[in-house]
Every structure is written in C-alpha cells, then in structure tokens.
Amino acid sequence: MIDILNALAALANYVFVPAISYGSQLALGALGITLIYGILRFSNFAHGDTMAFGTMVVILTTWWFQGMGISIAPLPTALLALPVGIVVTLVLLLGTDRAVFRFYRRTKAAPIVFVMASLGIMFIYNGLVRFIIGPNEQRFSDGARFIIKAREFKAATGLNEGLSIKLSQGITVITAVIVVVVLFWFLNRTRTGKSMRAFSDNEDLALLSGINPERVVTISWVLVAILATIAGTLYGLDKSYKPFTYFQLLLPMFAAAIVGGLGNPVGAIAGGFVISFSEVAVTYAWKKVLVYLLPEQWAPDGLVQLMSTDYKFAVSFSILVIVLLFRPTGIFKGQSV
Amino acid sequence: MSDNPYRDARGNKDFSVTDPSKTSHLDIDPTRSGQAVPADGDAPFLIGENMTGGYGRGADILHDCTVAVNRGEIAVIVGPNGAGKSTAMKAIFGMLNLRKGRVVIDGRDITALSPQDRVAQGMAFVPQTNNIFTSMTVEENLEMGAFLRRDDISGTMEQVYELFPILRDKRRQAAGELSGGQRQQVAVGRALMTQPKVLMLDEPTAGVSPIVMDELFDRIIEVARTGISILMVEQNARQALAIADRGYVLVQGRNRYTDTGEALLADPEVRKSFLGG
Question: Is the pLDDT of residue B11 over 60?
Fold first, then answer.
C-alpha cells in the first residue's frame, strides 16, 4: 500500500505537476495561434517570437520595478509588469498589422502569402528581441519559490517520495484558468465576441450583417497580445527566459493547435495538454515509479526512459504528423478546417 | 481576379493551411464608399434602373437591365441558367460595379454605397449558399443579423419565432445541425432581424423538398404582408410567378418579358420558352 502511495507521489512530482503547468503554457500559446487562424485565416509563424517580445518587455519592466523597490512578495514582480508588456506588445502587433497584413487583406492575398509574410515578421521580431535583450538566458523570477517543498511533504506524509510544487507552477495554472474563463465568456457571451465568432464562421455573411472586419481584426490582435504575453511570461517564470527557446516553442504550440483542431479554442486547450503530457511521459525515466509498483525481481535495470529529453521536440512533431495523416481536422473538429 | 498577383498561390492547393469556403468570395472593394443622394423623378420603392455591368474588370453580364419592386409587393426574377438573374440582384445590392444605370431606394440614389451601407439603408440580402453561421446557435444567428441595431431586439426576434415556430424550439441548437429547409428559415430570419424595408432572396428554395418549398413561399407571402418588399431570384419559375406581383424574365442579362406574375404565367410565349409548356 505504501509503495503505491510512493509511486503516486513520484508520478505527481515528476509527471503530473510539470505536465499540467507546461500544458497550460502551451494551451495559452495555442489559443493565440488558433485565434489568428480563425479570424485572419493564416498560420502565424511569428507567434513564438511575439511571446518572446512580450516576455522581454515584462522582464525589462520587472527589473525597473525591482530597481525602484516595488514588489508584491511573495508573488513574483513580473505579474505586476504584465500589463506593461501586454500594451507594448499590442502596439507592436497593431503596427505590424497596419504595415504588413492589412495590405495583404486589401489585396485579398492567397493564404500562403500571409504565411510567408508572417515568417518574415518572425525573423524581424527575432532580431528585435536579440537586439534589445540579447540571446542569453535571463532570470527574472523573484518572490517565494515553492508552495509545497519536497522535504515538508515527506515529513508530513511519512512517504519516501517528496512532492514539490513550485509557486510558478501554481501561478501558471491559476492564471491560465482565469484567462481561459474570461476568454470563453468574451467569445460566447458578449456582442463583440459573438461578432468575432461570426466573422470566423462566415466572412461574407458577417459583412452582410454589418460587422466591421477591421474592428474584428483589431480585437483579435488585442487578444493575441494578452495571450502571448501571459503565456510567455508564465513559461519564463516557470523555466527560464531565452529567446531561442520561445522560437522552438512554435512547434509544440502549433502541434497543440492542430491536434485540437485549428480555429477551435477548446481544441487548443485540449491539444496543449495532450502535447505536454505526451512530451513529459515519453521523456520521463519510469524506473522510480516501476520500482515501487512491480515485485522486486521484476525491477527494471535501465531507466525505462523512452526517449532522452533532448528529443522532446520529436514527440510533438510525431503527434503533429500522425494527426495530419489520420485526422486532419483535429480532435475537436476545427471550426475553420 | 486572375490579374491580382497576390492571389496567385502558384499552384498551391494546400487547404490544410486554410479553408477556401470560409474566406470572402464577395468581390467588394473595401475602399469603396459614397453617399446616398436624393434621386429625382418618380420611381417604385426600389429600382435598379438600366443597369449595365459585370464582375471586376470582366465583360458586362447585365445589359440595360431594369428590376423594380413596390412597397409590400413580391417581385420575382426568373430566366434560364446564366441569364444573369443572381447578377442582377447582386448589382442592386452593390456587389458589382455598374458602368451605367442607378439604384434607387425610397427616393434615394444609393448607387455609390457599399453593400454594408445598403444594409443600413434598409436592404437585407440572403445569399443562395453559405447564408447562415453554421457553428453558432439559431439565436446567435438572429442576434448577428441585428448587429447594427442598438435598440432592444427581443420584439423582432419574437416576430421571427412566430413566423418560423420551429426555430424557437431549436434556438439553442447550432444552425449547422438543422435540415435544409430549417437552415433557409434561419437565413431569412437573420435577414429580417435588421428590420429591412426590402428583403432580397437568392434562390431561397434551392435544394429543399417541394413541401418545404410551398411552406417557405407561404412564409414569404406573410413577410410581404407586413409591408416588406421582396425581391427574389427563383429557379422554380412556375411556383414563384404564382405568388409574384411582378415578374421579370431575363435572358442574357437583358429584360425579355416584364409583367405581373399572373400575366406571365398566362403568356403562351413565356410558357413555351421558360416554363416547359
């Protein structure tokens, strides 16, 4: 009995907790991608670097706040800096839209032209971020480190295995839940949100109903700025901030959006968790859990790790390929696919 | 629009990137804007007069075509395939550029207005296909129809539910899950939500069963009785002319016969050429 509890504790500590917080971060990122796909109808490759840019602004603001001695301890100061990051990111996104995407909308460009334009913008954002903050790793988390410490958990339960929950993980999950609830309330209950869904569903009919396309597009960018900055900051707090990592996040985020069904917000969230749990489960060394669960003579010799963590991107890539081959519309039928 | 290099995807037909059915097919110039000006002369409530024009920079499809409807009346445009029936209706709604002619509603010349602005002027248009928001509920469809209105819409919604009682039962259901006839009811209901003065229907009975078709025509007569003018393009010429106050037979973008629906049905020439004897 105690073995099973130990196994559960180890599983929670190494798989569930990290996967849930990583999944929330992916879900927020995938929501941004899915929104742009649903409204502007192209795959926005610049999304990862939008997150990097937003997080960069948050980091710079955090340092500024820290310099002035402002803090909301035990919570990280970065949360206080979020609004600044969102506003600056929004200015960048709207500027990009006016300068680039609006032109292609007016000319009714083919979707592939939009995708290629977003690729160019990705490189520009990429350079911009490296130019301002540099390519190196930055630390900006402060405040308390843990909600539950492994040692305290062991002392309290008497188990061999500890369970630790980082504050950043708790904040990630709570923030993600709040953001998602507000987003769905906005899309399903407000007039503006409904007009966005209508535009995503049928552009011509939205036009014939008097819905202004430019307004819908602007509001989508507002939502993307909020989602991208929050997702990026949460990821940075939880792991660490390095611009290149955010560019790499593009793959799992796209995989999440496509697995769930592009254009479908519920799908983006489900997809985020599918990807994160697969990634963590495949790269976790299961030996520890198995030792507790199996009889002694069956104890595995190796680590029972399916894949080294270096190959974690292979997991999202494989899922992406499998989904595109066998169920191109995703788990939840994408509204726009 | 083959002259637009940005639309040239260089043979890329990869629709995993996007679904072409959801993007805009309307050839609307977004920069187009103009004012409604008082029109001179005595005219019916809505008239597209001497319209000549076609899509984009293409060849003319309409030639000196005139279509009009009086207040509270039903006007029907019929004709063989490719006669420019739908094109004539789209021209009145501002979806193509007229080289000649004008569109007048209620004594105001609206030739320069964009389709969106014409909605605000009291015109409502129900396209032949893709005329509902499939992923949204019936009620949300109706709400979106009334998007331009800032006043209380519950009264109008009640009227739509009275006209189409089945929609009340299905109001929480996604419109895309409904049958063909019910979808058409949603489409007409959405258009009525703007409280239009003119309702324009592009082949409302396309693809529905004969029973549903009769039912739909009954409803259309009911709508006309409330004082809304109806302009309709129909494939089922015989049934449509039977309820029409005015009928227009178009051939190759020109007016061929114009008369009351009854007279057209009785005309042996029209019967022989267009109604199958």
Answer: no
Q: Does A229 or B207 have the greater pLDDT score?
A: A229
Q: Is residue A265 part of a domain?
A: no
The burial of A314, by beta-carbon neighbours within 10 Å (0-12 exposed, 13-18 middle, 19 or more buried), is given as: middle
Q: A324: how many CB neighbours lie within 10 A of its CB?
A: 15
In this prediction, what percent of chain B has a pLDDT beyond 90?
53
Q: In what order do the strands lie in the sheet with B108-109?
A: B37-38, B108-109, B97-105, B46-54, B62-69
**Count of structural domains within chain A:** 1
User: What pLDDT score does B28 carry?
Assistant: 56
- What was the ipTM of the complex prediction? 0.84
Domain of residue A186: give its range.
19-247
Identify whether A170 is part of a domain.
Answer: yes
CATH superfamily of B32-122+226-267: P-loop containing nucleotide triphosphate hydrolases (3.40.50.300)
Residue ranges covered by each domain of chain B:
32-122+226-267
Residues of chain B whose beta carbon is less than 8 angstroms from a beta carbon of chain A are 1, 4, 6-10, 12, 14, 16-19, 22-26, 28, 30-31, 115-116, 119-120, 125, 127, 130-136, 140, 143-145, 147-148, 190, 194
